[in-house]
Amino acid sequence: MEGANGSYRAHALILPFPSQGHINPMLQFAKRLVSKGVKATLVNTIFISNSMHAFPSSFINVETISDGFDDRGFSQAKNCEDYLTTFQAVGSQTLSHLIKKLKDSGNSISTLIYDSLMPWALDVAKQFGVLGVVFFTQSCAVNNIYYHLHKGLLRLPLLGPSVSIPGLPLLQVMETPTFVYDSEFFSDFYHASINQFSNIDDVDWVLCVIFYEMEKEVVDRMGKLWKMGTIGPTLPSVYLDKRLEDDKDYGINLFKPNTSACMSWLKDKPRGSVVYVSFGSLAEIKVEQMEEVAWSLKGSNCHFLWVVRAKEEAKLPIMFKEDVSEKGLVVTWCNQLEVLSHESIGCFVTHCGFNSLIEALSLGVPMVAIPHWSDQTTNAKFVEDIWRMGIRPKPDEKGIVRREEIELCIKEVMEGEKGKEIKKNSDKWKKLAREAIDEGGSSDKNIDEFVTKLVSTQSV
Length: 460
Ligand code: UDP
Hints:
The protein is of the alpha/beta class. It is 41% helix and 15% strand. A hairpin with a 7-residue loop joins β8 (162-163) and β9. The structure holds uridine-5'-diphosphate (UDP).
């Protein structure tokens, strides 16, 4: 095939859900496809395109569609349901226009790879007769829970104290996603999560962001249901196999990072001495919880680097930044990969967003897991009990994790006996992550198989 960018073997249109944690892994997957001779076009919403701080990569083409909320994105919608239904209506139309436009300009596509939160995109793929490929950015354990609920194989409310689901370890009710155990409160989010599976039996290929070794049993089970491939970890190549030229960062930042301030602050800190703290791009932490985290960091007496997004800053205790300035640095956003891979980092206090978790696992950084919502409660269980890369401080009866608990866990991870074991496991996972994506590794093979399928598919 010949296109504007020279010759290529197939053309993939890639449609992530418009949030940082969904764009990053799908953009990285696009880069992997490009490295294998596939042309990749990333589709952003108009709002994301206007608010991002950098252009992803000269190897990736970028196009836009509308979610119906061009000015302010999700925050412009009345609620989650309003956002998703509007996105479905406006997105389907504008996506169809885009595919036609590409075709008319000699850039026909062979596949539409879409985020699992937008199952309607499969209808658009079918309408054009191209391969419809769903991309899951959460763990297969979490996908498996939603799948069981969708099929009615698991019913709500969950009757505790523990829940047994085929392919998964026994889970306490509170270790299932918050959208499941608190499904009435989160009813919009619950329905969106279940809806990911509404047409899964009609998709041509299922791609998962993990690598096989992370969740062998559940991957084997799900692999019997659909044509499925694990393709992770999806970190920039410089942090893994180094096979992709110039692939040093994700490339799309929805917040402006304070990179130089962070890196020069970390520079002279002793090896393994710094606690890095971040609750990701979306979490709105309760004021009481923020205070407990703040005082635990001060109490730990460790150096710490804490990302508090501009919108959350007012929740910090008065004069906190000034008070701790000898030990701690608080920034509104950082280049998390550069920070996590810095030798001074000894532990990551994380909300267990799935990207953060895979990043920590791939870079071998031990964790203190303080899940906030969604899949993070299940992810935290896996961090502690399955991957054995961290510990979970226990919340009190109000759901707040108290400073003493956090402080104890930080100390245990940084200097305790359990910490030594965790460090050993972290080194093991770091090695496995690299092997999976390296040439001939489980994910690399899956990507090759997928590319072979694309090449043999007619583009439209
Ligand atoms: N991230 C970053 N800088 C920060 C905090 C987070 O670059 O200061 C990135 C992080 O590397 C990850 C993403 O933002 O890739 C957050 O995704 P995750 O799934 O961890 O959490 P979410 O934001 O979706 O809750």
